[in-house]
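Job type: complex structure
Entries:
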Amino acid sequence: MEFMSTFLWSSVIVVSGVAALYTTSITLNNRYTKSKMLLINVLFLFITYGVLFLIYQFNHSNDFLGIIGTSLIVWLVTLHISDDDIYVKIFTSVMSTFFFNMTTFLFCNTVLRLINTSYDPYEHNNIIHFLFIKLIWSIIFIFIYKNKVLPVVKTCINELKLKIKYYIPIALFTFFGFYLINLLISEIDSILTTNFTKTLFLVSYSILCIVFATNYFQIFLSIFWYSKSMRMETELMVASSIQNDMLPTIFPPFPEKNEFDIYATMSPAKEVGGDFYDFFLIDDDHLAMVIADVSGKGVPAALFMVISKTLLKNTSQSVYSPKYILENVNKQLCDKNETDMFVSVWFGILTISTGEIVCANAGHEYPVIKRKHQDYELIKDKHGLVLAGFETSKYREYNIKLEKGDKLFLYTDGVTEAKNSNNELFSTNRLLDSLNKNKNESCKTTLENLKIDLDLFARNTPQFDDITMMSLEIK
Amino acid sequence: MINIEKKLVDKNLIITLKGCLDTATSPKLDNELHDCLHDITSLKFDFKDLEYISSAGLRIILRTQKLMNKQGQMVICNINDVVEEIFELTGFIDILTIE
């Protein structure tokens, strides 16, 4: 090859190298400052140029050393310039060299061959065309990559971290696989002799490239969405633990009070739920108890649950009337309730010294009472409308007097409406049966055994609704 | 599954529901109602074949009742025992007109 051709052909290869190195350096976290990076790029340019020039001076079609050698230098420089994990560096550099070396050669070769069937890539004019196409291709790609693709790639790399090593084989196979196809295209004239087979080859080859590109795009899109959903899941887990922390979960909650025993559990159907229970001392002699169920499930219900729980607790500071508390909270919840969510609440205030409970029911399930030496039975109390339904809702109070040994059990419809595989409901009948089997047990054991009964009943059906239970015993 | 049948006479709309109104089926009713409630002054729900209603269904009933309070009246008829108990339990019975 004459001097000018060698010079031009080396330029073609160097353009790919510089573009590949630039792409890796904007993708990875650089160890050096911008000016130092520029210096490294310039050094790279000259050294590679020199090496390539020598290679092609000796053997004018030694593209194996030319292309693979340039790529190798890019890989080595990448390993050096970046602080990222080694697998990330390998993956990024192999992919970028693949892109700029392989695809540009394949693209240019294919396009030029389609234009001119007796095409010789090393002919002087052809190299100029080649260089021109390659420059435009590289600039367009870098522009698109920098503005559109880079954020996605960075997210993928961040999310995948060490897992990226499983993707390195894909990158290497792609690189060397397409190198082989590249060789095939260079030899196309000697292998395929008729114009028809040549066209057939080029067409099927183009289809292969499109399929490959689409697949690659799909792989990365899936990784991207996977990582996004992983993050959502992590956030849901955090939300779930925040929600758990909102409920009193340390038992016994008031070790200094031995006049009563209280126990409660909440198991949401999804990560976060709309059910909640609460109990707190309003003063030394008054215990407030709440059990509630927000309509719907998941995040919307959980947000509504947080508002409802906070309002109920805040409103009941130094107020001893469930009627007043429910009516007040109802008004606040109705204000700007565009989604028409609502919450059913049973609210009771126990006077610890007398065992008297003042309660009110806003559309919640019937409470269950057990008198000493008797069975558990429903209290068919008067129900008001659920909270957040209508602003003007009124609630009625009623009293329950608990003696020593009496128990009160509260629950949400997740218990009574748990379904089995025959689509039957657990129902209040089964609830009472299960409670009565354990009527002499402590609050904690009763609830645990009831949960076992529920799980046995709904054995093969997934839990559909949040399940919440609370039990109180006067000692 | 839910089957929604609509009968419109003048500005009176009768909606007959058949099946279960729960989380899965409520959006369907919600969409149907959204399209056909403007100008209606009398809405009647026939719950003869409605087996069950969940809180998602109650939410739509509540929303529709609020809307109809502004533009006319809403009546629910032929409710079965299960649905009646749910209306009682949730206090909906106080705000709905049930025949």
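Summary: The beta strands of chain A are 260-267, 275-283, 286-294, 343-351, 356-362, 368-370, 376-378, 397-401, 407-411, 467-474. The interface with chain B takes residues 293, 295-297, 340-342, 344, 362-366, 383-386, 389-390, 393, 413 of chain A (CB under 8 Å).
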